Amino acid sequence: MMNTIYAFHLRYPYLALMLLFSALHARGQEARFILTDAEVAGDSLYLGLKLDFSSIRLNSRTCLHFTPILANARGGRLELPPVLLSGRHRYRFDRREWALNTNGRTHRAEPYLIQLYKRHSAPRPVSYHIGVPYSVWMGDAALLLRQEVKDCCDLQLLGVDTISVRLFTGQMIGRQTAPVLQSALQQPVLVQQPVSVQQTVPVQLVEPLVAVSSVAYPVTYSVRDVELYTSMLSFLEPTVEHDKKLDEKAVFYIDYPLGSDNILPDYRNNRTELQKLDSLLSPLSAGDYSSMEHIRVCGYASPDGTYIDNERLATSRAGFFASYICSTYGIPRFRLETTSVAEDWEGLSVLLQSEPPPYAATVLSIIQNVGIFNGREKQLMDLRGGEPYRDMLHRFFPRLRRLEVSVRWNIRAVSAGEAYRLIYTHPEWLSLSEMYGAARYYRPGTEQYREVYEIAAYRFPEDVVANINASSAVMLTGDVKSARAYLQRVESDPRSWNNLGVLALMEGKPGEAEEWFRKAVGVEPQKARRNLQRLQRIAVTDGRRLQDEKQVIQDKRLSVEDKSRSVQDDGGER
Questions:
Q1: Are the beta carbons of 86 and 94 closer than 8 angstroms?
Q2: How many Cα atoms are found within 13 Å in the side-chain-facing hemisphere of 203?
Q3: In percent, how much of the chain has pLDDT > 90?
Q4: Exposed (0-12), middle (13-18) or buried (19+): which is 353, by Cβ within 10 Å?
Q5: Are 188 and 69 in contact (CB under 8 A)?
Q6: Is 112 left (phi over 0), alpha (psi -120 to 50) or beta?
Q7: pLDDT band at 341 (very low <50, low <70, confident <90, very high)
């Protein structure tokens, strides 16, 4: 009996895997993967995939791993970050295991996304976008999909299918066709992390080390002596942000049955409104990039009715909404704070100013000069026979009855590799220094390199360092117009003076460039003095060039005159 039981347990995992794999296909449960985009831009390959898990059903202790793989027949191979569809219990077990055990981290890529499976709702589709350094072998690579399952122990392979036989032919093949030979799947992925270096001014960027050699694309600039200008530009070090906070906010208009304050998801338009809550809380909590600091729920009521009733209504609905958040998302109650505004006169004033009706000025004057308990609402109801009040009752007051939810996240520090993946998807999670870490994946002067610095300037428009570095990045592509726009924002800051000098030189204004370099001597003395010396050498070189051109013109003129005299002499002799 003991032997029988032991044999059953030994074979059970494999039996379970077979049953799961066959059951998925038997019931039409399959993940649909569509290749939506594949292009080479600069020195990078960009891929876009659409992932549909809507037909899959999972138990809470199972996790499915879907790993896209680039591979060709000559051994070129690159595994991309996987997408995980995980049950709630499995997700918690894996996170605990990851936190307690460091073994085995290096051979598995960090997931692109972990999507929690919810029993009573279909998984949301996933848009998968990624850029990787391009290599020559990728030109004829196939896009494969490895599917694995984790139930209790290690990952077990379900199968490997082909999404696209060849990336750039447009031939899309469904996941049921052309499985890849197992022998081709056993080659290890040898991708090293980019070298981390201490940056100085100017920033020295280090190319990532990849297992395969990347193709070298020529970079064309519209300015002469590019290397000279590159060494003359300033790249400044930002202040390292150790405590990153992210504040997210959403407004909800919940419908309630008469006399009720409970949240009924299926009542009227509530389902659509509550989807905003899912969008507010899910993206960050799905990964390990953040931890929630607190949530604030504020209930607002419109001015119509008595103040006491409005206060009770706003407070009650804020409390019920906070309870709904706790029960739905498993958030501890101590993380939530509730407040209320009994009569949102401030919100009404904002609406009257943004969408002013003919009576706006009069109503705003009453709001400003008459107190809430001194007859403010009575004066509004009596104004022009009550017509403005009735209009506000139907036009503005419903928009004041709302709930506002504010979430504060603590965002952890990320590596350069993580920043590289997040820069285009979630730049708001990155500090300025982390964004510059993503720039290490691109050569200075490429469009991707420029984009990283421009995204940083867009996210931090008031930051001096962000604007100066963005001006340097765009000048490396010869775009003096954009560089001028960035530097005009920070022209009063002495740290911009060196780059203003380089910009003037690129615009053909050596005199103005000299003025800026001399001013910058007190800020960046070594760089500014070198730039002054280079400016002098450029002037000497240009002077010699001009002299040489004049001499060439003079020689040509004399040659023409000599030929003319020779012709005349020959004619005279005849």
A1: yes
A2: 23
A3: 34
A4: exposed
A5: no
A6: alpha
A7: very high
Residues 264 and 396 in one domain: yes
> Residue 186, Cβ neighbours under 10 Å: how many?
7
Q: Please state the length of the chain.
A: 574
CA distance 17 to 145: 18
Phi, psi of 368 (to 5 degrees): -75, -30
Residue 126 backbone dihedrals phi, psi, to 5 degrees = -120, 130
**Sequence-separated (6 or more) residues with CB below 8 Å from residue 438:** 416, 419, 420, 422, 423, 430, 452
Task: Give the tens place of pLDDT for each residue, 210-251.
Answer: 222 222 223 333 344 456 677 889 999 998 887 888 888 999
pLDDT at 340 over 90: yes
Structure tokens at 360: 């706006």
Token pair of 50 as six digits: 């659409």
Coil, helix or strand at residue 278: helix
* Confidence label for 299 from pLDDT (cuts 50, 70 and 90): very high
Percent of the chain exceeding pLDDT 70 equals: 74
Residue keyed to tokens 């017509």: 387
- Ordered strands of the 44-52 beta sheet: 32-41, 44-52, 126-133
> Which pLDDT does position 30 carry in this prediction?
60
Q: Which residues, at least 6 apart from 533, have a Cβ–Cβ distance to it below 8 Å?
A: none
Contacts of 166 (CB under 8 A, 6+ apart): 140, 141, 142
Tell how far CA 527 is from the center of its chain.
34
Residues of the domain holding 201: 192-242+415-426+438-446+457-535
Task: Judge if 232 and 258 occupy the same domain.
Answer: no
- The DSSP output letter for 305 is S
| Domain-embedded: residue 130 | yes
Tell me the C-alpha distance between 473 and 483, whole Å.
Answer: 8
Residue 566 is assigned to a structural domain of this protein: no
